[in-house]
Amino acid sequence: MQVLVTGGTGFVGRAVLAALAETPHRARILVRHPDSPRARDLAGRWRVEIAAGDVLDPASLRAAMSGCEAVIHLVGIISEVGRNTFENAHTRATQNVVEAARTTGVTRLVHMSALGTRPGAVSRYHQTKWAAEEAVRASGLAWTIFRPSLIYGPGDQFTTLFARLARWSPVLPVMGPGRARLQPVAVEAVARAFVRALTEPAAVGRTFDLCGPERLTFNEVLDTILAVTGRRRVKLHLPLPLARLVARGLELIFPRLLGRAAPFNRDQLLMLQEDNVGDPAPARALFDLPVESFRTGLGRYLRRR
Asked: What is the DSSP string of 242-297?
């Protein structure tokens, strides 16, 4: 099967390409800069085709999908800068992918959403993810939607960040009380689910939670990172009003002065105050996903680093 992967150069995308390389499927990735070092590295490492294009450019999407039978759509952002808004990156991009698939004859779509996505969500991240899901459900394609919790693994933007921070800082910041629960899931398990869904008839027309076996508070996640790295650090809890001011300041400084997305924003703060948990059993059973504790999985990749 020829499979187009959007978001293939990202954290989850690289794991999906690695999983695809172990199957007879042929992978093609959509990239805005095909001559970039990262794109060339992926092409050589995983023997993938490179298609120049952009999820906000319908014509380039149609060209990239030519000859494909399936699309794995992974594009998403956690912070905005320039035209990379939640509405563009999540909703409009998915609408473009759906329309291009219809036009080119692609019949299979496996879509990345997020745990917590629902109608009436408080964060714009989840609101735009929900609108994207609605476009997928109305597409007429053979679709599957995955909703992961916190994904961890080599190069992630959470556990790796806090592990590095713990190397030199005596404190770890916590926005608010840190009592909201997460179900961290290894990126390899997420990638396996996406790839196995391509040829699993029982996955068509269904939405799956992708999450680990443990429900841990934010504080407990940090405690696990410290335990695995063998460090003791103080958790500094910022009151929510102060955390909002910090997030607002970062939103102003980074895009305007540095041209980069803020490392933390008010939308993320909203999500950090909600539980991010689900039911791992259906996906685990259908796709034969591994069951591994967060501490074991985290230790495995941090020790490798």
From this structure: HHHHHHHHHHHHIIIIISS--SS-HHHHHHHTS-B----HHHHHHHT-----HHHH
Q: Which residues of the chain have pLDDT under 50?
A: none
- Beta bridge partners, 34, equal none
pLDDT for res 304 = 60
Are residues 67 and 27 in contact, defined by beta-carbon separation less than 8 angstroms?
no
Distance, in Å, from the CA atom of 187 to the CA atom of 16, rounded to the nearest integer, reads: 9
- How far is the C-alpha of 197 from the C-alpha of 145, rounded, in Å? 10
For the chain, how long is the longest CA-to-CA vector?
A: 56
pLDDT at 305: 55
Rounded Cα distance, 286 and 110, in Å: 15
- The answer to whether the CB of 169 falls within 8 A of the CB of 201 is no
The pTM assigned to this predicted structure is 0.96
Report domain extents, the chain.
Answer: 2-149+185-211+278-290
Site of tokens 């805005």: 32
Long-range Cβ contact pairs of 76-79 (< 8 A, separation 24 or more):
76/7, 76/112, 76/114, 76/129, 77/261, 78/125, 78/157, 78/261, 78/268, 79/261, 79/262, 79/263, 79/264, 79/265, 79/267, 79/268
Domain 2-149+185-211+278-290 belongs to what architecture?
3-Layer(aba) Sandwich (3.40)
